[in-house]
């Protein structure tokens, strides 16, 4: 596919024209094997290195084009796929796709939160362990994750380092239990300015808001909210003649976002 050289009389910034054409070529899967360097692209489009750098910046910040030290840039095609109906692990999902998973811990403390306490069936003044993380897949942010657990059982988690581990794994090792079943509500949302900055997406980008309550027998022990980038995650379901289509939903809209696969019961 041939690059469309930008017009200097079109009334649109050169870098925007170049960026638009690069997205066209990316969508056409022209750069599956490799993505050209900045210098090569600048020559191809007949623009300066500075203009090309401006055109590439949004693609890099959104994770569409990635580059690691010592490696050539490439177009990210791996999006994370999650089956509906499994007690899944975002940690395991990322690693099963061959990507490096890690987290920046934004908060790990004991606090009161009446809304979270209500979801857990506790009094508004109940003490809760709160864990907030920015989750990464390779070098790009994937999700903002916040979890609340009853402090009476989860206090040992305050000593854990969540940089390279899953919450459910730490729960199993430190307190001897983790959710065996759960309920989730998945909703399409647009990110706020602060959320977009943390997840390195364009302003008001689409995302999934996932609200989970995890249970052990009849006791709720986890309330979680997760914001996942819409360009890197999708959900799937299974059906058969015997079971039918097993997927409950709130018909307030539709979503068509294409994603890593995870198994039931894996640590999250």
TrEMBL record:
Listed transmembrane segments: none
Domain HTH gntR-type as annotated: residue spans: 12-78
Chain segments carrying region Disordered: 248-268
Pfam families: GntR (PF00392), UTRA (PF07702)
Swiss-Prot/TrEMBL GO biological process terms: negative regulation of DNA-templated transcription
Keywords assigned by UniProt, alphabetized: DNA-binding, Transcription, Transcription regulation
InterPro entries with a match to the protein in the record: Bact_HTH_transcr_reg, Chorismate_lyase_/UTRA_dom_sf, Tscrpt_reg_HTH_GntR, UTRA, WH-like_DNA-bd_sf, WH_DNA-bd_sf
SMART domains, per the entry: HTH_GNTR, UTRA
GO molecular function: DNA binding; DNA-binding transcription factor activity
Name under which the protein is recorded: GntR family transcriptional regulator
Organism of provenance: Candidatus Brachybacterium merdavium
């Amino acid at each position: 596919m041939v690059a469309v050289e930008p017009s200097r009389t079109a009334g649109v910034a050169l870098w925007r024209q170049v960026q638009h054409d690069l997205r066209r070529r990316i969508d056409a899967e022209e750069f599956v094997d490799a993505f050209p360097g900045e210098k090569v692209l600048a020559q191809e489009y007949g623009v300066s290195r500075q203009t090309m750098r401006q055109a590439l910046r949004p693609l890099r910040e959104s994770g569409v084009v990635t580059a690691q030290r010592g490696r050539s840039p490439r177009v990210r095609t791996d999006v994370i796929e999650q089956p509906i109906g499994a007690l899944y692990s975002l940690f395991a999902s990322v690693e099963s796709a061959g990507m490096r998973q890690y987290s920046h811990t934004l908060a790990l403390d004991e606090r009161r939160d009446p809304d979270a306490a209500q979801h857990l069936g506790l009094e508004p003044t109940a003490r809760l362990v709160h864990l907030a993380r920015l989750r990464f897949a390779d070098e790009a942010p994937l999700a903002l994750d916040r979890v609340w657990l009853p402090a009476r059982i989860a206090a040992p988690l305050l000593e854990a380092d969540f940089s390279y581990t899953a919450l459910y794994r730490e729960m199993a090792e430190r307190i001897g239990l983790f959710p065996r079943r759960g309920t989730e509500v998945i909703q399409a949302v647009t990110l706020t300015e602060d959320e977009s900055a943390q997840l390195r997406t364009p302003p008001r980008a689409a995302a999934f808001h996932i609200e989970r309550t995890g249970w052990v027998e009849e006791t709720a022990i986890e309330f979680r909210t997760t914001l996942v980038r819409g360009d890197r995650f999708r959900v799937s379901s299974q059906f058969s003649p015997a079971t039918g289509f097993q997927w409950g939903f709130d018909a307030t809209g539709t979503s068509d976002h294409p994603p890593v696969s995870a198994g039931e019961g894996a640590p999250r």
